[in-house]
Design brief:
heterodimer, A: mainly beta, seven-stranded mixed β-sheet, four-stranded antiparallel β-sheet, 11 strands, globular, B: five-stranded antiparallel β-sheet
């Protein structure tokens, strides 16, 4: 159990366009999901915490208008990179925690975004 | 604040034991985790330990926690080439529930 599906796994887009990444918990309800960004050979940087039915909480330095997060249901959170630029190219990973769970943050398989 | 530190690289021979070390700063951490990441993939939870435990063993994996020194280690027995990956230590911040990751340790297993 505890599977998180993230789509797409890879996307190439042109500068100035927007890209939506989906994160779904397949077999459990996730009141909280997290979005991370990972640069090559670096650690995961937490971008925001997404709570179902409320606004996301962004980490310091992360542009809210640039990275739009929506968590409309207990099984789906989306990250939209708006007006993408080459510096937004990165590996984006979501994770979800099972409702009332004390352990086991489950991670999606990640999305490789390349902006050309 | 919350900070997690790991050594960046470890190289071992197949069949040897690997020990990956991690230090953290948040004394209110409730859970500590080890994740494995293979190239181009997401993170796979390997094991976790609750902050009131000293040791946890799961097949080839042994986690040791020294809460006084805020030091966590992961020992992999009989390391195989398939264990080559990046290993991340993470702490669950006590007051926010956020996961804070270390920089990751690249484990290289030589045949």
């Amino acid at each position: 159990g505890a599977v998180v599906s993230q789509h797409p796994s890879r996307v190439i887009c042109k500068s100035g366009t927007s890209v939506k990444i989906e994160c779904r918990s397949l077999d459990f309800q996730a009141t909280t999901m997290f979005w991370y960004r990972q640069f090559p050979k670096q650690s995961l940087m937490l971008m925001a915490t997404s709570n179902e039915g409320s606004k996301a909480t962004y980490e310091q330095g992360v542009e809210k208008d640039k990275f739009l997060i929506n968590h409309a249901s207990l099984t789906l959170s989306t990250l939209t990179v708006t007006s993408a630029h080459p510096e937004d190219s990165s590996f984006y990973i979501c994770s979800a925690i099972r409702q009332a769970s004390n352990y086991g943050y489950t991670f999606g398989s990640g999305t490789r975004l390349t902006v050309v | 604040g919350e900070d997690v530190e790991q050594s960046l690289f470890l190289s071992v021979r197949e069949g040897d034991s690997s020990v990956i070390n991690c230090t953290y700063t948040d004394s209110s951490s409730t859970y500590l985790y080890w994740y494995k990441q293979e190239p181009g993939a997401g993170l796979q939870l390997l094991t976790y330990i609750f902050s009131n435990m000293d040791m946890k063993q799961d097949q080839r994996l042994t986690v040791l926690l020294n809460k006084k020194d805020k030091h966590l280690s992961l020992r992999i027995a009989d390391t195989q080439t398939g264990d080559s990956a990046i290993y991340f230590c993470a702490e669950r911040a006590g007051n926010t529930g956020k996961l804070i990751f270390g920089q990751g340790t690249t484990l290289q297993v030589k045949p």
